[in-house]
Design brief:
By secondary structure, this protein is an alpha+beta fold. 30% of the residues lie in helices and 27% in strands. Strands 1-2-3-4-5-7-6 form a 7-stranded mixed sheet, sandwiched between helices. Bound molecules: coenzyme A.
């Protein structure tokens, strides 16, 4: 498995992985594209041994001049069901955090469903902590929570350095 930038023509495949993972909670194509256009470098894919995209992570960079500490975020992370529990989500997250660190981000946030045990466990392994409950964030009676990682303080203690080689920008 290798982490790299998506190639031309792979957007449809990334959206396919996203749809399969999130179902009715998937982003619309427009929203997905808007995220990509906001930071076209902030997307990484995982490919299997045949070169097929089986996972992705979408990252956002905050505007540096808005806050004292530069913020970034994980917008979306998904791995195809057949390829889960093989460390791909971890490697994608590690690459995303490395990218944020390269861009001088000090604090990383994300939103996740409170019952999404797989994702919450993964985020905990990187040191993300719950910062607040987001009632009905995913619809009626489907609460989310915001989780935050102090990337500056976590330097050297989280799994950022596990990132594998990534194709050039
Ligand atoms: C969350 C997700 C990306 C994890 O991807 P993955 O490739 O399976 O993750 P990893 O194999 O790297 O797992 C890393 C750790 O996360 C935790 N984890 C992963 N899946 C888990 C599960 N089903 N139950 C409990 N813990 C789980 C474990 O701590 C695991 O470490 P371990 O395998 O050594 O026990 C994947 O389950 C997914 O795509 N889910 C659907 C989309 C989604 O919910 N995305 C997150 C949106 S906020």
């Amino acid at each position: 498995m290798r982490i790299r930038k998506p190639r031309a023509g792979e957007l449809a495949r990334v959206i396919e992985v996203e749809r399969a993972a999130f179902g009715p909670d998937s982003y619309s194509v427009t929203t997905f594209l808007a995220h990509l256009f906001r930071d076209r470098k902030g997307v990484f894919v995982a490919e299997d041994e045949r070169g097929q995209v089986v996972g992705f992570v979408l990252v956002r960079l905050g505007l540096g001049w808005l806050r004292r500490r530069r913020r970034g975020g994980i917008t979306s992370l998904a791995v195809e069901a057949a390829h889960r529990r093989q460390g791909i989500g971890t490697t994608l997250m590690a690459r995303a955090l490395e990218y944020l660190r390269e861009n001088n981000v000090q604090e990383v946030d994300l939103e996740v469903g409170v019952t999404n045990q797989a994702a919450v466990s993964l985020y905990h392994t990187f040191g993300f902590q719950r910062s607040r409950l987001l009632p009905h964030y995913y619809g009626a009676n489907r609460d989310g929570m915001r989780m935050v990682l102090d990337l500056a303080a976590a330097a050297g203690t989280n799994r950022v350095r596990q990132a594998e080689t990534c194709e050039g920008d």
